[in-house]
Amino acid sequence: GQSLEQPSEVTAVEGAIVQINCTYQTSGFYGLSWYQQHDGGAPTFLSYNGLDGLEETGRFSSFLSRSDSYGYLLLQELQMKDSASYFCAVRKAAGNKLTFGGGTRVLVKP
Amino acid sequence: NAGVTQTPKFRVLKTGQSMTLLCAQDMNHEYMYWYRQDPGMGLRLIHYSVGEGTTAKGEVPDGYNVSRLKKQNFLLGLESAAPSQTSVYFCASNPQGPYNEQFFGPGTRLTVL
Questions:
Q1: Phi and psi for A80 in degrees, rounded to 5?
Q2: Number of neighbouring beta carbons within 10 Å of residue B96
Q3: Which run of H or E residues covers position A29?
Q4: What angle (nearest 5°) sits at the alpha carbon of residue B112, between those of residues B111 and B113?
């Protein structure tokens, strides 16, 4: 089978940096995606790592280490609007199907 | 472009009733997916389609059927609803090929009593 582990909840203050770790066990790994979901909303795509290393998109960065089956999402200069759930998702080699982790709820306090 | 739309937004069913959820996309995407999300959990893939006229099972297909008669539409059917199917259902789509982003609809909140 396959599994993804990420922390259930993280709390931080505005302006801080938060790192959300994701470890996975799967066969046929192709890449790791990150999605953001606000309460009552739909998931929206943040980033994708197909190769080892860091991908930067504005205040958000994502990292992947295939040898360690590990990735993380880094949220910098936290803003109140970043309060949401963040999901890592494994993309397998066969097609574009995604398997999602349980999500990390990020609460940003003033 | 409307993107991915879902109908209805909310629905309450009694155990044993049937219904169909409609997903439509106007982006000419080949791939479409149905997920369910239970409270405090991640999304689980129910069924998916890699093109018009094709469907395949995902992680949790039992109790659901799907059809993709037209490229832009992906229907999810519940033949005999059960309380365990109370969930929020999301549809998503993406183009064919090594495309990294899935585009999600707004979701359908289904309650089965």
A1: -55, -35
A2: 13
A3: strand A29-37
A4: 115
pLDDT in tens, A36-79: 999 999 999 999 999 999 999 899 999 999 999 999 999 999 99
Residues of chain A contacting B, Cβ within 8 Å: 4, 31, 33, 41-45, 48, 50, 87, 89, 91, 95-103
Give me the amino acid identity at A23.
T
Residue from the list B42, B50, B102 with its beta carbon closest to the beta carbon of A103: B42
CA A81 to chain centre: 17
C-alpha to C-alpha distances, B39 to A71, B35, B87, nearest whole angstrom = 25, 13, 8
Tokens of A44: 């929206």
Residues 6+ apart with CB under 8 A from B87: B36, B37, B38, B110
On whether the CB atoms of residues A46 and A62 are closer than 8 A, the answer is yes
